[in-house]
Amino acid sequence: MDARSTAPVPPPGCPAHTDGGRVPLYGPEFQADPQAYYAYLRHFGATAPVELAPGVEATLVTDYATALQLLQDSGSFRKDARRWRHLNEGLISPDNPVVPVLSYRPNCMFSDGAEHLRLRQAVTDSMARIDARKLSRTTEQVSEYLVSRFAARGSADLLGDYARQLPLFVFNELFGCPADIGDRVLFGITGMFDGINAERAVEVLFGAVGELVALKRAKPGEDVTTWLMQHQAQLTDEEMVHQVALLLGAGTDPLGNLIGNTMHRLLTHDRYADGGGLIDEALDDTLWDNPPMPNYAPHYPATDMEFAGTKVQAGDLMLVSFAAANTGPNLTAARESGSNRSHLAWSAGPHACPSKEPARQITVTAIEKLLNQLPDVDLAVPEESLVWRPGPFNRGLTTLPVRFTPAEPVRRTAEAPQARPAADAAAEPGGRKRGGMWSQFLTWLAK
Ligand code: HEM
Questions:
Q1: Ligand 1 mean position, distance from CA 109 (Å)
Q2: What is the 3-state secondary structure (H, E, C) of 368-435?
Q3: In a domain, 60, yes or no
């Protein structure tokens, strides 16, 4: 289907076919062809009525200029999710699967005004202290380690074996996690995003981050956790735990999907076949057409108002479709003539992603290093058989099976592949297990 078509035809399987109601951003049809849904949603105008999960209603902004207007007007549209009217009125069950992603936590993503400025400044200043050369070196080491676990096989799942793992390892290093805490962080984040025993995973993650904060108070290091702690914003322990958990959560899953979606693009579009210099271009094209966070930036109107021709009430849930805004039919010319980076994949305004530079750097380095080690890597299955993860907020493949000429690891041989981190650390209560993924990496590195 043409991504830029505006024909008001509900996509196959969409209940809007029958009852003219809200358009669901979930289910196998949405997951298989979200652009067909965005094309349909545009016939409502700049905003459209959607459902994020059964019973969770929202207004979705699909137009680029209107999205910018909302994102830049922090007086009219607030981030504090305690304003969410339908949740407060009990219309949404607290165990609805989208509630953990949308509900309030005391971090910069969910705060407004002076509180937001204070927390965000601590985050941006601390992330800015990351040394770009060291970040590249860490990313390369993790890449070598992960590839050494499957290089001899001649086949791999680039998502599960590489793209989703690499950010977790790099973040453990950036945040100065010692082995046992790092293993539990890996377990917590993986479990949270896989939705496997998510409640337990969140508990393990917050427990591990709490220990990390206590450790860095006692023994500061050269890492983001310590820099956050030393920041003039003087974060309390509770604020520290929430900002670190946000950075780990907000960073790792979209980063894994950015690596995966860019690799998918490189492997499925002939025009990138010439190699090296085109990774940056494939990355930008991915951010335009297939962004890892396709629909997010939850905001709540401060008062009842009319916005882009639609009446909204104070506390209504409003989201921005970065994926729809980026592919709007009027944008093509601007996109070709203007800056190739004016997409909304990182959002815009005061809450725009504060980490796009390190995220870009990790992604490009991870892909370059992978292609250096496995130069003839190729898709192992027909493109049509690839399956995308469900849900409105994340866009990423479930697996990306590839094949390549079996290779000798660049250096040192990793131990035989073991279970993925969730299963690994889950082997003991609290995820406390000697020799989890992070410990194995540290042992490999020290060899
Ligand atoms: C190094 C990895 C990353 C880190 C540490 C990170 C961290 C963050 C943080 C802390 C925020 C909240 C900012 C605020 O509310 O003031 C944020 C927002 C955001 N990030 Fe990132 N991020 C990373 C990677 C990514 C990636 C790969 C994407 C997708 C391309 C992305 C897209 C976004 C978007 C769309 C928002 C706005 C969310 C909203 O308004 O609710 N981020 N990020």
A1: 9
A2: HHHHHHCCCCEECCCHHHCCECCCCCCCCECCCEEECCCCCCCCCCCCCCCCCHHHHHHCCHHHCCCC
A3: yes
Residue 132 lies in a domain: no
Q: Specify the range with the lowest mean pLDDT, choosing from 224-228, 400-404, 411-415.
A: 411-415
Q: Is residue 224 lining ligand 1, measured as CB closer than 6 Å?
A: no
Give the range of the structural domain holding residue 72, as residue numbers without chain letter. Answer: 1-101+294-344
pLDDT reading at 275 higher than 60: no
Q: Which protein residue has the closest C-alpha to ligand 1 atom 23? A: 251
Average pLDDT, integer, range 229-242: 97
Q: Is the pLDDT of residue 401 over 60?
A: yes
Task: Copy the structure tokens of residue 123.
Answer: 């985050």
Domain harbouring 41, CATH code: 3.30.43.20
pLDDT score of 376:
94
Residue 293 Cβ inside 6 Å of ligand 1? The answer reads yes
Is 392's C-beta closer than 6 angstroms to any atom of ligand 1?
A: no
Residue 249 Cα to ligand 1 middle (Å): 9
